[in-house]
Design goal:
Ring-shaped heterooctamer of six TSN and two TSNAX subunits, DNA/RNA binding occurs inside the ring. One of its GO terms (biological process) is RNA metabolic process. By secondary structure, the chain is an all-alpha fold. The chain has one domain: Methane Monooxygenase Hydroxylase, Chain G, domain 1 (Up-down Bundle), CATH 1.20.58.200. Helix content is 73%, strand content 0%. It is globular. It starts with a helix and ends in a 7-residue tail after the last helix.
Length: 208
Amino acid sequence: QEIRKVVQTLEQTAREILTLLQGVHQGAGFQDIPKKCQKAREHFGTVRTQLASLKTKFTDDQYYRFHEHWRFVLQRLVFLAAFVVYLETETLVTREAVAEILGIEADRERGFHLDIEDYLSGVLTLASELARLAVNSVTAGDYSRPLRISTFINELDSGFRLLNLKNDSLRKRYDGLKYDVKKIEEVVYDLSIRGLNKEATGGVGGEK
């Protein structure tokens, strides 16, 4: 019961961060990216407090016994942290860095930690979000962003191909990545047909 209560507060904070970051998809949202990321990071301070409270509700050796309770919200928080880091630096956040943002451990031996499959699930959600961002960038007249997103997603896809995914839900999520890659390729192809990618690489369409 106590675990469930804390998880509910985590879900609420995750919703607030998501609502905030969704603003980047709106036309004017691109100018506000640094401000939105800063605000999101403040919310992650609340997340750290809530996760610290969650840790006190059970002993370390019971982590996987109750894992199902917070698995989904943790994956969502990984996605949100990965999205913030991507918007700030256009790089992929490491599992260690996410664990640090969330105020938990990266190593299983150290107690309440970020499970590798939860990390990978969150990263796959990021891919879908970036596919959407690529489409909305064009609408906002930012033609260089989809090209950079395309490079990033292709590198991500190459990384996932190296993994032997045994987990069924993760495998299904990975299948979705192929559609994200395809969606972004279509955006880039459309830009090249319209001659807009030349503008993008010339640094005219939208700043990084």
